[in-house]
Amino acid sequence: MVINQESEVFKSITTLGKYVGNTPLYEIQHLSPKPKVKIYAKMEWMQFGGSVKTRPAYQIIKAALESGELGTGKTLLDASSGNTGLAYATICARLGIPVTICLPENASWERKKLLKGLGVNIVYTSKFGSSDESEAKAHEMYNNEPDKYFLANQYNNENNWKAHYEGTGPEIFEELGDSITHFMTGLGTTGSFTGISKYLKERDPSIQTIGLQPDGALHGLEGWKDMETAKVPGIYDTSLVDAIKHVDTYDAYDMLKETAKKEGILLSPSSAANLKGAIDLANEIEEGVIVTLFPDNAEKYSEIIKSLF
Ligand SMILES: Cc1ncc(COP(=O)(O)O)c(C=O)c1O
């Protein structure tokens, strides 16, 4: 059954659209190593839900309401170790849609509390199985009860990268145009890398797009996947990858501390890792404009912040 577009839930998601995206593009002031290399980052926590994942979550939920897959009593189900779960939860709390999230049991207490506070039903998976095991659990639950759930399936849902292709990419290009020489960001579901790179390359094929990876399977960069060892997301478009660069977790933590002191921003580990990747690249080139993302800030990482300061 397709839901009536005049219904309250439909009006509510449409109104919510004005709080999604349109985040500020921050120019790195003091950490850029060369005067002729500019580094910019989208401050993605400055939107409803507090992270980059609000964009895909919103698009996935809106499309499912439009197609009638959601909004008629079904529960939204997905695997997430963090921000996507919180984004689904904030949007669905407002819409009155129930949410079930499969989460590795070693997720931080803050995530668990926030999800619980937002009314999410959490299904824990083993801490040894990472997000791949949570994903498998979500698929198993959906296969057992397909009438009960809408499986949002962020790793394979085209609306994930499309949210960035239609939103983040155009926002970046509108501000910087063809002055951009490089775009780079960490690979998780790869939605942000795929959607933004595709849009920027269509506008200017000379823009180099670089995927960032952790220095190994065991890392502390929440939101990143090590593509060598993890299950590769279905939406990952490797034809958009001009290069892959690696960032060490401890270098990202050092960057987090430095950014706080010199730029006055408290970043999350993956945001700091993106900036570290951009600064490493800036050291390799003579001039250019490098764009990256700050997926979220330090707010949800009190255990890491406690150990660093
Ligand atoms: C903090 C953080 N950084 C980076 C990413 C990676 O973004 P994407 O899933 O678009 O590849 C995520 C995704 O969940 C994230 O939560």
TrEMBL record:
Residues 19-296 form the Tryptophan synthase beta chain-like PALP domain. Transmembrane segments: none annotated. SUPFAM superfamilies: Tryptophan synthase beta subunit-like PLP-dependent enzymes. GO terms for biological process: cysteine biosynthetic process from serine. It holds the Pfam family PALP. InterPro entries: Cys_Synth/Cystath_Beta-Synth, P-phosphate_BS, TrpB-like_PALP, TrpB-like_PALP_sf. Its cofactor is pyridoxal 5'-phosphate. Keywords: Pyridoxal phosphate. PANTHER family: CYSTATHIONINE BETA-SYNTHASE (PTHR10314). This is Cysteine synthase B. It comes from Reichenbachiella agariperforans.
